[in-house]
TrEMBL record:
Residues 227-363 form the AAA+ ATPase domain. It comes from the Eukaryota. It is a single-pass membrane protein. Signal peptide: none annotated. It is found in: Mitochondrion inner membrane. It comes from Oikopleura dioica (Tunicate). Residues 19-196 form the BCS1 N-terminal domain. Coiled coil: none annotated. Its main location: mitochondrion. Keywords: ATP-binding, Hydrolase, Membrane, Mitochondrion, Mitochondrion inner membrane, Nucleotide-binding, Transmembrane, Transmembrane helix. This is Mitochondrial chaperone BCS1.
Length: 451
């Protein structure tokens, strides 16, 4: 009996001990779970991005570009074909594959970088045959505000990198008209503003005015002033008016809509319709505005193609369309002409033309700037020698002719030696560049607007 009692007591004690251990284990697990939940909620930050969001591609590109990231990539290949079937352009795009990755992020002032867990998930394709994907970033933080800021910093870095790539590959769309509707004529590579050679800071001054207009709609609304801006570019043919418009559109990320004022199909009603229906975020260009008022009624008289047309835009029709209250919100209108003296003063008064710029034949600064644009590694003395050679044969030369000359030369020395080809009188003596020209006291960088 005693032995049995002792055995039962021992068994009860063992069972009680096991139960206690189990209880402590459960309490410990529950405590750890609660602690983990507390830490996760208060000291970690997560950012989830789905592939339906534009930021998804930004983040993929950013992660693939980081050197502290994964070595496990997936590849995406893109290419373009010519009409003949030949591959024209082949690109490889590396992206982090699906799975868990880690990167290290160190903010200024921190000694030890913090790990960031990156998880890319991919599910089965949806009805559109596109897999549903997500990127989840998770990191430790001292508080929720700091965690939110850290995630936003990573996202902003990815956005800035994506926009920088977009700027280098951005195009400018050119729209034209058949007299009735707008249609896309061409898509051109974005022209950098640095490719436009004007006098110092001229490009920047015009761009600053445009950006000031684009970014101040609230001010116009508050002042009760129509939110539109008119520009007049006038002067010598081939002086860079159209080239500047193209570069400005690229800087603003705008399109260009061209209206040929000499078009036989253009009349008052069609012109007003085109202005009102211009594509959004577009610079409207009225080319050769001086041709608008030529009487073309006799030219189209009896021609069935122009039946019912008046043969041109009238003076009052043009002014009413420019001043019109219909759909002028945010409109940028640029008029170009080679003959400003032919324009009526009512057309170019303030309110219709807010900014006018004259384009002349190439100045000394523009000639030097053109040379250094094509030969950026040449010393300033070469640019001065080239300027002297050009001026010795031609007192007035257009930028278009100067650029055509430069495009035919790949050697700066040859470009200096052959300036006789630019002579208005072909019997002029060729400049051989043998007599160096001493630069004046004013440095060339001053003319070019360089720091």
């Amino acid at each position: 009996m005693g032995l049995e009692g002792v055995g039962m007591g021992d068994g009860f004690g063992l069972g009680l001990g096991a139960a206690a251990v189990a209880l402590i284990g459960r309490l410990g697990n529950r405590g750890l779970s609660m602690m983990n939940t507390y830490i996760t909620r208060n000291y970690t930050a997560k950012l989830e991005i789905t592939n339906s969001d534009i930021a998804y591609e930004w983040m993929l590109g950013h992660l693939a570009s980081r050197r502290d990231f994964t070595a496990h990539y997936q590849i995406g290949t893109s290419f373009k074909k010519t009409q003949a079937g030949a591959i024209k352009k082949l690109d490889f795009n590396l992206q982090p594959t699906a799975g868990t990755h880690y990167l290290w992020e160190k903010k200024p002032g921190e000694w030890i970088p913090r790990p960031i867990k990156v998880e890319r998930t991919r599910s089965q394709p949806t009805a559109s045959n596109v897999p549903f994907e997500t990127i989840i970033l998770e990191t430790f933080c001292s508080n929720k505000t700091e965690g939110r800021e850290r995630m936003l910093e990573i996202l902003e870095t990815a956005r800035a990198e994506a926009f920088a790539k977009m700027d280098t590959s951005m195009t400018t769309q050119i729209y034209g008209t058949n007299g009735q509707e707008w249609s896309l004529l061409s898509t051109q590579s974005k022209r950098p503003l640095s490719s436009i050679i004007l006098d110092p800071m001229e490009c920047e001054r015009i761009l600053k005015d445009l950006k000031s207009f684009v970014g101040n709609k609230a001010w116009y609304d508050g002042m009760g002033i129509p939110y539109r801006r008119g520009y007049l570019f006038y002067g010598t043919p081939g002086s860079g008016k159209t080239a500047l418009i193209t570069a400005l559109a690229g800087e603003l990320k705008y399109s260009i809509a061209l209206i040929n004022m000499a078009d036989h199909m253009m009349d008052d009603s069609r012109f007003l319709h085109l202005l009102n229906k211009a594509p959004p975020d577009t610079i409207i260009v009225l080319e050769d505005i001086d041709c608008a008022f030529q009487d073309r009624a006799k030219l189209i008289e009896g021609d069935k193609r122009f039946a019912g047309m008046s043969g041109g835009v009238t003076h009052s029709g043009l002014l009413n369309a420019i001043d019109g209250v219909t759909n002028s919100d945010g409109r940028i209108l640029v008029m170009t002409t080679n003959y400003i003296e032919r324009l009526d003063s009512a057309l170019i008064r303030p309110g219709r033309v807010d900014f006018a710029r004259e384009f002349k034949n190439a100045s000394d600064a523009q000639i030097c700037g053109m040379f250094l644009r094509f030969f950026p590694d040449s010393p300033d003395t070469h640019a001065w020698n080239f300027l002297t050679g050009v001026r010795s044969h031609n007192a007035d030369i257009s930028m278009a002719r100067l650029q055509a000359y430069m495009m035919s030369h790949r050697d700066p020395v040859k470009a200096m030696e052959n300036t006789a080809k630019l002579a208005s009188n072909t019997s002029s003596t060729a400049f051989d560049g043998s007599d160096p020209v001493a630069p004046p006291e004013l440095e060339l960088s001053h003319f070019l607007g360089k720091s």
